[in-house]
């Protein structure tokens, strides 16, 4: 029974990553027109609307604990997405995702109970150090800092996703979390004003981003988080940089150095090792 659950959880997490990075490539194409804040608002807001229509959660049945967990989960979603989009507006997608992964990496270390987990996490950490172009004076330090900050909220998202999935149906949790995220991000969009440049074509692209980057992957993540410990899920998500790098290369023509590709290989190896050797925790 445990094997079946794991077999369901891992494909769900992998498919989530494919969707997220494909959606991020489309999102980055929207930045010149509506900016990072406008794109993030469009992504989260449309996702919340779609999920509410499809899932129709019964809000009147929620407990105080469920409302609390959903609100913190929604904060993690809003901050993670908004800050990450601001980061990749300044730096390549693959680089941004790899630096962002520091959040889940340290979460994995904090939750570790076996020395082998530390080995895999440290290998992923080495990969992150390799991918940062330390010798390049043109590197955008603010972009790197924003990617790191997004990683902190990524860790919050993982922890709260696991907690909220344990006390309520996943579809209700992700829908309510997205509604909270929308409420949090709308003031930033009003302040920014870039959504005034929205056109029908941009709206359709934003809808694609909402489906690929939020509605579908967040639902898949809750399927995985319901079946996997937060530690295992955190290290598994280290595959994100590889998906991001290939997505950036294919859709955005963003090229990385050989050393940066080696670093991604380190992160992938750490992820595979942690997933293969991780047992019940």
UniProtKB/TrEMBL annotation:
InterPro entries: AA-Vitamin_Transporters, EamA_dom, EmrE-like. Keywords: Membrane, Transmembrane, Transmembrane helix. It is a multi-pass membrane protein. Residues 142-272 form the EamA domain. Pfam families: EamA. It is found in: Membrane. The chain crosses the membrane at residues 34-55, 67-87, 93-111, 118-135, 141-160, 172-191, 203-225, 232-252, 258-277. Its main location: membrane. GO terms for cellular component: membrane. It comes from the Bacteria. Belongs to the EamA transporter family. This is Inner membrane transporter RhtA. It comes from Myroides guanonis.
